[in-house]
Amino acid sequence: MSTRLKSGGRLIDRSAPLDFTFNGKRLRGCAGDTLASALLANDQMLLGRSFKYHRPRGLVASGAEEPNALVNLGQGARLEPNQRTTTTELFDGLEARSQNHWPSLDFDVGVVNNYAARLLPGGFYYKTFIHPRAAWKHFFEPIIRHSAGLGSAPKDRDADRYEQAYAFCDLLIVGGGVAGLQAALVAGRAGARVWLVEQTAHWGGRAPVDGDVVGGMPAADWVEAAVLELSAMDNVTLRLRCMAAGSYDHGYVLLDEKLADHTPGDGRPRHRLWRMRVGKILAATGAIERPLSFAGNDIPGVMLAGAVRDYAVNWAVSPGDRTVVVTNNDDAYRTAIVLKEAGLEVAAVIDARNIANGPLPERARALGIRVETGRAIARVKGGKRVEAVEICQQAGEGAASTTLSCDAVAMSGGWSPVVHLWSHCGGKLIWDESEAMFRPDATRPPLHADGTAMVLCAGAANGALRQAVADADAQVKIALQALGFEAESEEVPAHDVADESALEPVWIMPQGAGIALRSKMWLDFQNDVKVSDVQLAAREGYESVEHTKRYTTLGMATDQGKLSNINGLAVLADSLNAQIPQVGTTTFRPPYTPVPLGALAGEARGEIFQPLRKTPMHDWHQQNGAYFEPVGHWRRPYCFQRPGETPEQAVHREVKNTREALGLLDASTLGKIIVKGPDAGRFLDMLYTGVMSTLPIGKCRYGLMCNEQGFLSDDGVVARIDADTWLCHTTSGGADRIHAWMEDWLQCEWWDWQVFTANVTEQYAQVAVVGPNARKLLESLGGMDVSKEALPFMHWADGTLGGFACRVYRISFSGELSYEIAVPASQGAAFWALLHKAGAAFGAMPYGTEALHVMRAEKGFIMIGDETDGTIIPQDLGLDWAISKKKPDYLGKRGQERSFLANPDRWKLVGFETLDGSVIEDGAYIPEHGVNANNQRRVQGRVTSTYHSPTLGRGIAMGLLRQGPARMGEVVEFTRMDGGVTPARVVDPVFFDKDGEKQNV
Amino acid sequence: MSDPVSALQGASYDGFAQLREIGPLGMITLRAKAGTPGLEAAVQAATGCAMPQMRRIVRQGPCAAGWMSPDELLLILPYADVAGALARIGEALQGQHHLAVDVSDARAVFRIEGAKADQVLRKLSPVDFDRLEPNELRRSRAAQVAAAFWAEEGGFTLVCFRSVAGYVMGLLSVSARPGAEL
After folding, report:
1. Can you spell out the DSSP letters for A768-813?
2. Residue A678: its chain B contacts at CB < 8 A?
């Protein structure tokens, strides 16, 4: 059984017990435990079920590479699935539940898949669900989706908060082991701005566990001294629990800092995502041990040798009383020695090599440990935990000669450098024959903006498995030199580790294993990919490692192949009779370990999910029943609901009131751009289809803007302010875009034209005072002459109204007598309130955007975004009158002359009147007979604006119809969602006051 | 005429840094090419400030002049002085191509104060605050919106557009919440 040892445990504090639950069972650990070590200390060996076959799963590893021991952590608003127990720090009250089983962990129905394993080979899904075609969408996919996934998805809103922060440094060192610490010391002393980040809660990495001696002292002491020195340096930032998720072009790095994972609910952000820009990255990310592929290597109790050592040394936990160590290298002997010295039994070291006589094997033998060379594990016996192993010759086919009873197996297939940060941006790897591993190829690094190496690897991550400190020292000096810093010439601390003799690559154990054994050799523990699956894929023609990955799902689990990748591709290479470097690795992609979506969203949630633009009158709207709609990032009142009213009823009331008495509209969102300079007139003549240079001072003119292709882009009223100043109104959503468009032309194309622009949209609050009583209201306020004579239609004037300095435009988008009044934004709320107070006597009511839309549609005015969609030219909308025929050029003129746009057959704007007075459905088409080349029903037009007109008491619509204006009086049919049609007569798009008498009074 | 009101009417928040909306503040956007005759005199007449160097802001009593782009300056002055300053600019740049407009009401201005004020902004703006120089005017963004800021008097002054004042206040407050020190 696994248990807590009586003494030891460098990371735990036995005096601080912590209570937690696993599947409701109350358990106890202590401060410093990970959830994994605490579970193991409580003899909880079975932790979950595998993805496909639902086989029992226990811990394999002790760190970020763990594929099996994932749990649902927390509950309700703090539930998070797929949490790695090995990287979860234990806290008091932690609640964990195992995943991927039903009805219980110990008795799981899904395990029948295990017995049907022959029916679920690699590529099973592709082969099985391809026919019939429709069945995938409607039958297979829903079932697979239901059974897929490991943990349960959180359903509540996340109770935690997250944030992001930006940081900059010369050198980012990733990994707080002895290599990273040495690099930080050198860089810190050289005066560089350094960040040193470590994903776990402890500095030092493996060296203290492995008994390394650094600088003449035990590694743990050296680590402590190094951290002390670094902490005192102002130019060095140290961060624990901070994982470098990915490196990106130009020195951009994302780091995920776990602030409160281990102290939930303490009010701090749970995670912080650092967005860093760095001069160089030094990846001292260490190495990950490889499993060995023998039959039954997935049975709970089979663990990596390094992990067994970690549990024993760091947390004083023994995975078993009697352990078999199986290896192809000397390093695993350290585990045997540690266990033996902790008073535990080591049944034997099974060494696949024929000779093992380095210092470590010799020391093991001296401790009385039985060492069997040239041997292999034929199979592991046991179900929910290891019971025994059968021993055979590595060179043979797996005929067992001995059975050793044991309750744990510590395996080691050698170590692979963690090269993710090196590889994310294209750093290349070379195959190291002697260590049987891929390591960074320093001649082909990922490149920074200046063409130099962006990432350097140091220590074990660089392939220096035994001389990490010296390698880090050398690498950081290369980095510092490239950054322009001079490293002090200090002696490199000696890094003493036992000599190790060469390992022997072992990809299958035993070498000649038959199909029965190979079908039980797990490569990817979480996704249930076995040696036989990869071999099958190779036989079926999947020669590319990327294809094999997707076909078999090798390395696609949440650990992203940290354990399975190298073993899998070695098996693939063997099956293809190719060399491992020829097969290569799959692509390393960020993040290194999963980053919560909350951290990626950062502060952008709730009220500040996105910027909400508010006019100065926004608060008034909110207090007066506004039903808002988004317009760009603005929120504009769609209508103002009165108690008991539906929005539709409110809109009808607002339209009628405006037409009959007085409406007030908050038009502040309207874009306002000042254009000034000797060439301003010429500039505007290029931007607008009409002529603006001739506009007399004091007058307004409606204008259209097109893009270079000729398509209508924006519209609005332009006012001539003085000899060289114009004010251009744009649509509400278009102000920033049109301002940028103007600057683009001025800065990039017509840089020699003397024109300046300024976007003053937000400087002004603007109110449309609309309706037959509009003038009466303004006259009651007093201050300036707003009579027809003093301020005719399409004129503007400066003055005061009710004591407010303002500019008044006589323009109308409703067809009514209308004034648009601009006052400084800081006066907007007060002016708006005054209009309502004084307007009450004249029947004033606020109206929203929908009433505005209905009224402009009654008048046949087009709306950018309704009548236009990026494929419409002004001529389509009958706006030829707004296009100057005399000007030699304007933006879009050439485009509009292209044959398709000049085609008389184009769909053109007309009005539609339903025969029965009903309202045509939004987005309805006008079909015609026959089908097109895609076998789709042919169409001849569509509706663009359709409303119930309260003024006329029936449905009105505008739309585009092939040769529309030539077909007045014709009846066409619009589609309906229920399959029927709505017949409508083609009419003039101006439904109301065709002569414009009302606006001109 | 009623009293001008700022977008948030002086809202404030005390977290690990102190935030408050200030203003209304007088602001003028002055556009003219560098070297335009009379430009220095115009800036002097409006604010009493010398011409700011590239990416710098010059402070003079309640006034300031900031460099916004090769042909744009931000002039800051008491709200009530804007009309007079615009007239003086017009005189100084008589006959020269330029554009001077009142943008006082188009903006919202915040103060972020306290020993950790920089940490609030480090969460929102991709700016290297360790390298932010004295009197440096930085045009950047605060999360999703445009913002400009500079360090002065034990904190930072941040300018954004008026319509997003509430959003920016929300950003600053969330970032300054106790327990979220960097």
Report:
1. EEESTTHHHHHHHH-SS--STTTS-TTBEEEEEETTEEEEEE---S
2. 97
